[in-house]
Write a structure and sequence with these properties.
This protein is of the alpha+beta class and about 170 residues long. It has five helices and six strands, in the order H-E-H-E-H-E-E-E-E-H-H.
Length: about 170
């Protein structure tokens, strides 16, 4: 009597790990794309009013009238053009732009990509409560109309993000 033996090895766990790694790569590419668009959105000049940059003096032309014997240069305050309501915030110090970060959270069978700002503004001094500066600009306050910057970058990126996340696993992201 002829006899054949077959052995079945369950490789499901390894396959699922490989799929999970590809999904994580896709999510990483998606959040980096949104971050790049967000940084670009925060790099423009405003179209609103002109203001002095707080706490910054730029030294330039000699002030001969006030120079005196010490030959000191008189400073003039640097200005910037603020954003108008409804447009992304104009870059003044660059702090908001520098604070844009990404995060990927893995919860059981879900991968969540996050892009945002961790920058907080503390108007009460060191002991006061910090307020999310990015949210203040995005949604506005009682005294300031919104300067949306994060939602528009998500909307601008949406089609490309969908393309990235719908790529079959096992294929390289271009």
């Amino acid at each position: 009597m002829a006899k054949m033996e077959f052995e079945f090895k369950d490789n499901t766990k390894n396959c699922l790990n490989a799929i999970g790694e590809d999904l994580l790569k896709n999510m990483t590419a998606a959040v980096e794309l949104v971050k790049l668009n967000t940084l670009e959105m925060l790099s423009h000049q405003g179209m609103g009013r002109q203001y002095k940059v707080p706490g910054v003096k730029a030294y330039g032309k000699w002030d001969y009238e006030n120079m005196g014997t010490s030959k000191r240069r008189a400073g003039y305050t640097r200005t910037y053009t603020a954003s108008a309501p409804g447009e992304p915030p104009a870059q003044v110090t660059g702090d908001l732009k520098k604070s844009v970060m990404t995060n990927i959270v893995i919860e059981k069978d879900t991968i969540i990509g996050e892009v945002g700002s961790g920058l907080s503004y503390n108007s009460k001094g060191e002991g006061g409560v910090g307020v999310d500066y990015g949210a203040m600009l995005e949604y506005g306050t009682m005294k300031m109309l919104p300067r949306p910057w994060l939602r528009p970058s998500f909307e601008q990126s949406q089609a490309e993000v969908e393309d990235i996340l719908q790529q079959p696993v096992g294929m390289e992201i271009e």
